[in-house]
Design brief:
The complex is a heterotetramer of chains A (250), B (119), C (572) and D (146). With 250 residues, chain A is an alpha+beta fold. Chain A has nine helices and seven strands. Chain A folds into two domains: 100 residues, Beta-grasp domain (Ubiquitin-like (UB roll)); 135 residues, Fumarate Reductase Iron-sulfur Protein, Chain B, domain 2 (Orthogonal Bundle), CATH 1.10.1060.10. The chains are: A alpha+beta (250), B mainly alpha (119), C alpha/beta (572), D mainly alpha (146). At the A-C interface, helix 1, helix 2 and helix 3 of A face helix 3, helix 4 and helix 10 of C. The structure holds flavin-adenine dinucleotide, iron/sulfur cluster, FE3-S4 cluster and FE2/S2 (inorganic) cluster (FES).
Chain lengths: 250, 119, 572, 146
């Protein structure tokens, strides 16, 4: 594996708001190792070639969710993608559908607002006291929301979703998946509240089931399933609301 | 308008969803026979002679199926057209386009009822 | 003019400890204004990577006494026993709270929370959520924290200096990475929860953000760092990347196998007795190193390694309990543990030492609290038991939150002018560093040399000579660091600037680790010396305190609180 | 190559704290790679709209008397209509295959107290429904029964 001879060219998007009018591309030809991930190459460039290259990363084990970028046009976790699957030239850019702060760093505050707006926490009519101990939840009940609780907030799905691209209000796949995860948790009583959000502007009905979110999700969360289940629940909730109008504070 | 659209969204989505699901299920046979097989002479044209068509169309089940064959595809179509419009950068004009498309589907649906009653 | 914002409590760090502190303070006073300063978005904190589990007594056949004793023994008797008592008693409540907030703990068939075995624990007491425990805990905590409007986040703000006035900490200067501006965030009390410092070593399970910043902040403000010589090596990391393969693999029944196909922990005497793979980490790591030294390892491009064999667990169990281990192995080493053993070797994992705090999470500096991995409340002593630290983040994070709140209620704001001035000084320092073009040194070179010397001097096995050597080298590196040149002078998202600030912190921590280690002339827990292989309670049953001094680190001693169990030989 | 997405896509409610470059669409959108199938799927909306109105016309004519109805049958024989229906058939089948593939996962784990059947079963049921109804309708329309 000490074959340091192999070289690849990285075409990286650069953007410095204080100096560049618009993003530009910069090429780096560097020696690569056969077992490198895309992120390793960026780190090599940063350490040895160009200290000004900016990007986010931390865990390098595909769990912190910070290293998402477009690699050859597809949203990817760069710490997870083996370099060997790409050819001699690799194009690395900031996540699509996000404003670009600098180089490969995108604006994440919009996502944070969306995530917050779906009330991603357990809502209960009456909070349980610690002394009462843990709630019971059968493995089957756990299984119902498990997949949707695996989202690492990497936002790759946002980069793939055509609705995100064109409707700024859209809550987007991950936020809805996280909200839905709570709504179908047997310990939660907040589905009605979240359904209000889901039926609101940019809510679940904006999704046109492109399924692109699930195609690119590195954690197999299947956010498309979550969003569309959430639609289903939001409609059922709406329909029952028509038939049995809810009391003020029920 | 935006508000009204939001309020109606669940209903529209229901119709749209059924448009894809039941609409597709119903349309396949219709297109196959009425759109292709009969015109191409694979099935003799008298299969849908006026009398037989009247007979089928005036039966209650026939009417329901015909209603589904009109209303559901219209809503599927209108909603998808709206999405196409949005996908090609039309978010700003959605407040105009969406009501127009849905109005189209809605008037088609009303006409469908009239048409079916008329049979 | 520097921007100043004011809150009641400032928390630096958005990992498990910082978030728990924020929520704990809010629980008592919903109106308290909390600043949550974090250099990454909180859900990116390295707590996210913890895999195995969090310990707390829940089973019928378990009790506080047992958990406490396991922890004392695991610590090689260097932990404070009053702290341990508080810890074990509050642990179940804390994990229960997380359950109430939605943490998807794995369950038994009857719906109760499931527990698994962990190294050094005498019974199954480690709660888990498959093998993504830290991830689930962190996201649960973070999402729960989102419901409170009074927690004001300063995301991607890098704290560079504590602001102290009249002997009390009053806030922090933080670089807004997004804008390049240093701002002053003031509070009446402050909590450090900045996590560990594994990045001073080359081969570690830690992510790139674990650079010991908070430890350095406290150290520079005159607070002692305690027991920093104790660096935990985790027995099972992937060669090359250092990515962790959780101890839960062994908790679920995995075997460690040498190149001769032998389950050496059962066939040779490494002091772990019948616990075998479930012995404490320091012992297992030493056993692995000895196996490798005896030539019973495999060799590969990233050095020698052994095998962790899970095949006998079967696919169903691996998929249900260890999905992340499987995913990681496949992606990062190309091995499917269902069919092949996983190559592993010991890897730097955790800092037992940290900012010296008492049982209330308070430091010696009034108003300053610390919790989580950056703190040393003396729960872990010379060796932490796996799955105690996530719980520690909760128990002492909560304590820090509560106590910082009551301190804030009783304290004054300090002189804004003085604090603003300090902030401006700090802003000037950071501005001078940004794009500092003069200098012959490169960050990556300094980092490389730091890594080399830390590995040689402060590895699993240590000797006086190399520890001294490392202490000297780190001191030299500090000199070279002063001569570093940076290429990036941009204001916006200047990650090179951040790396340079982190490097300064890492050098502080490395210096403390090397000096503390060189002074402890015995072997205890994770601090193992070839030249003095035995524990020496006569002379060394104390905590090492290390203070900042411009002339070089100054060491002091602090007694260990015993009380219940007297030190005895540590045999399993 | 890439084009701008909506300028406010994923922007925070307060303007960002520094100047940002506008969000870009994914390179392949809308006609490249997997997006092609998605875009075509949405485009079948036109087919469905037209089909809906064609059926409406037919039913209306049926109510208007024999001549009108025969006119419909006559018109359907033109190449234009046959061509359209051929495309429509492909479109309808495409919609079915794509959507039925997605449909099972869009079922929540529980609808009230009711648990939907396992995903493969839902899929099988959908196809059974589709094929069954198509066969039934075709036979009826083709004069096979009734
Ligand atoms: C791979 C791995 C697996 C582990 N598995 C387990 C396990 O199974 N069980 C267990 O009990 N323990 C485990 N641990 C240990 C445990 O995860 C950590 O000790 C614990 O998560 C530390 O949490 P923390 O809140 O102290 O710090 P972290 O989660 O590291 O958070 C630190 C926070 O401080 C912020 N910060 C740092 N510096 C600055 C600065 N200068 N300015 C502003 N903010 C700053 C960061 O942004 C971050 O938000 C594991 C550790 C690792 C590395
Ligand atoms: S749903 Fe998947 S792609 Fe989207 S943020 Fe979560 S983990 Fe990332
Ligand atoms: S890609 Fe977008 S449109 Fe829906 S299914 Fe996923 S959110
Ligand atoms: S670096 Fe954490 S997900 Fe890639």
């Amino acid at each position: 594996m000490s074959d340091g001879q192999q070289k690849k060219t990285f075409v990286v998007t650069r953007f410095d708001p204080d100096r560049d009018e618009a993003p530009r591309k910069q090429s780096y030809e560097i020696p690569v190792q056969p077992d490198w991930k895309v992120l390793d190459a960026l780190n090599f460039i940063k350490d040895e070639v160009d200290g000004t290259l900016s990007y986010r990363w931390s865990c390098r084990m595909a769990v912190c969710g910070s290293c998402g970028m477009m690699v050859n046009g597809e949203p990817r976790l760069t710490c997870k993608e083996a370099l060997s699957q790409y050819g001699d030239t690799v194009d690395v850019g900031p996540l699509a559908n996000f404003p670009v702060v600098r180089d490969l760093v995108i604006e994440a505050d919009g996502f944070m607002e969306k995530l917050t707006s779906v009330k991603p926490w357990i809502i209960r009519a009456k909070e349980r006291a610690v002394e009462e101990g843990p709630m019971r939840q059968s493995p089957a009940e756990h299984e119902e929301f498990k997949q949707f609780s695996l989202c690492i907030n990497c936002m790759l799905c946002y980069s793939a979703c055509p609705v995100v691209a064109n409707e700024p209000e859209f809550l987007g796949p991950a936020a809805i998946a996280v909200g839905h995860r709570y709504s179908i948790d047997s310990r939660d009583e907040g589905a009605a509240e979240r359904n209000e959000v889901f039926r609101g502007e940019g809510g679940v009905f904006s999704c046109s089931f492109a399924n692109e979110c699930s195609e690119v999700c590195p954690k197999n969360v299947d956010p498309a399933a979550a969003v569309n289940q959430a639609k289903f629940n939001a409609v059922i909730d709406w329909a029952t609301g028509l038939v049995l109008p809810r009391g003020g504070d029920e | 308008m935006k508000h009204l659209l939001l309020k109606l969204e669940p209903l529209i989505w229901l119709l749209f969803g059924q448009g894809i699901l039941l609409g597709t299920v119903l349309l396949t046979g219709w297109v196959l026979v009425v759109g292709l097989a009969i015109p191409l002479g694979i099935v003799p044209a008298d299969a849908l002679s006026y009398e037989r068509a009247q007979m089928l169309g005036s039966h209650i089940i026939g009417r329901v199926i015909l209603l589904g064959l009109i209303v559901l595809p219209l809503w599927k179509g209108a909603h998808h057209m709206r999405h196409i419009f949005l996908d090609f950068g039309g978010a700003k004009r959605d407040v105009l386009v969406a009501p127009l498309l849905y109005l189209l589907a809605a008037s088609g649906s009303v006409l469908a009822v009239v048409a079916i009653v008329r049979i | 003019m520097i921007e100043v914002s004011r809150h009641d409590i400032v928390i630096v760090g958005g990992g498990a400890a910082g978030l728990r502190a924020a929520v704990a303070a809010t629980e008592i006073d919903p109106d308290v204004s909390i600043a949550l300063v974090s250099k990454v978005y909180p859900m990116r904190s390295h707590t996210v990577s913890a895999e195995g589990g969090a310990a707390a007594v829940v089973r019928e056949d378990d009790n506080f006494e047992m958990h406490a004793y396991d922890t004392v023994k695991g610590s090689d008797f260097l932990a404070d026993q009053d702290v341990i008592r508080t810890f074990v008693e509050q642990a179940p409540g804390e994990l229960t709270l997380l359950e109430h907030w939605g943490c998807p703990w794995s369950r038994n068939e009857d719906g109760t929370v499931a527990t698994r075995a962990f190294g050094g624990m005498s019974t199954k007491r480690t709660w888990y959520a498959a093998d993504k425990v830290g991830f689930h805990m962190l996201h649960t905590l973070f999402q729960h924290s989102l419901r409170f409007d009074n927690i004001v986040r300063y995301d991607e703000h890098f704290a560079t200096r504590l602001l102290v006035d009249e002997g009390t900490v009053r806030g922090v200067a933080a670089l807004d990475i997004r804008t390049g501006v240093v701002r002053v965030v003031l509070g009446r009390s402050l909590i450090l929860a900045t996590g560990g410092a594994g990045k001073i070593f080359p081969f570690t399970t830690n992510g790139s953000i674990k650079t010991g910043d908070g430890m350095s902040l406290a150290y520079r403000a005159g607070v002692a760092l305690k027991d920093m010589e104790f660096v935990q090596y985790h027995p099972t990391g992937l060669p090359g990347t250092g990515i962790l393969i959780t101890e839960a693999t062994r908790g679920e029944g995995g075997y460690l196998i040498n190149a001769e196909g032998e389950r050496f922990l059962t066939t040779r005497d490494y002091g772990v007795g019948s616990k075998a793979e479930l012995g404490p980490r320091d012992m297992i790591s030493r056993a692995i190193i000895q196996e490798l030294e005896a030539g019973r390892g495999f060799s590969g491009p990233y050095g020698d390694y052994l095998h962790l064999d899970l095949r006998h667990l079967g696919e169903a169990k691996i998929v249900a309990r260890l999905p992340m281990v499987r995913e990681i192995s496949k992606i990062y080493i190309g091995v499917d543990p269902v069919h092949e053993p996983i190559p592993i070797r010991p890897v730097v994992h955790y800092m037992m030492g940290g900012i010296d705090t008492d049982i209330t999470a308070a430091t010696s500096l009034p108003g300053l609290y610390a919790a989580g991995e950056c703190a040393s409340v003396s729960l872990n002593g010379a060796n932490r038991l796996g799955s105690n630290s996530l719980t520690e983040c909760l128990v002492f994070g909560a304590a820090a939150g509560r106590n910082a709140l009551s301190f804030a209620k009783g304290s004054s704001e300090g002189s804004e002018d003085a604090l603003r001035r300090q902030g401006e000084e700090e802003a000037a320092r950071v501005a001078a560093l940004r794009g500092k073009q003069k200098g012959g040194e490169k960050l990556s070179r300094i980092r490389g040399d730091l890594h080399k010397t830390m590995e040689s001097g402060c590895g699993v096995y240590r000797v006086q000579e190399t520890m001294d050597e490392t202490a000297r080298t780190v001191a030299q590196l500090k000199g070279r660091y002063a001569d570093v040149a940076l290429e990036d002078s941009s204001a916006v998202f200047n990650t090179e600037l951040v790396a340079a600030l982190e490097m300064g912190n890492m050098l502080d921590i490395a210096e403390v680790v090397a000096n503390s280690a060189a002074a402890r002339n015995e072997s205890r827990g994770a601090h193992t010396r070839r030249d003095t292989p035995n524990r020496d309670d006569q002379n060394f049953l104390y905590h090492t305190l290390c203070y900042f001094d411009p002339a070089g680190p100054r060491l002091e001693k602090k007694g260990v609180t015993l009380g219940h169990w007297e030190p005895e030989e540590r045999k399993y | 190559m890439s084009r701008n997405a909506h300028p406010d896509a994923m922007a925070p409610s307060k303007p960002g704290r520094t100047r940002t470059a506008p969000p870009q669409l994914p390179d392949q959108f809308p006609f490249g790679g997997r997006y092609l199938a998605y875009t075509l799927f949405d485009l079948t909306g036109i087919l469905y709209l037209l089909l809906g109105f064609l059926v409406l016309c037919a039913v209306w004519s049926l109510g208007s008397g024999e001549a009108a109805w025969n006119g419909v049958l006559e018109r359907n024989r033109s190449m234009l209509y046959v061509g359209f229906h051929a495309i429509a058939l492909v479109g309808v089948i495409f919609v079915g295959i794509r959507f039925f593939g997605f449909f099972p996962k869009a079922q929540p784990p529980r609808i009230g107290p009711v648990k939907p059947p396992p995903k493969p079963v839902i899929l099988a049921m959908l196809y059974a429904l589709w094929i069954g109804v198509t066969a039934f309708l075709s036979i009826v329309l083709a004069g096979g029964i009734f």
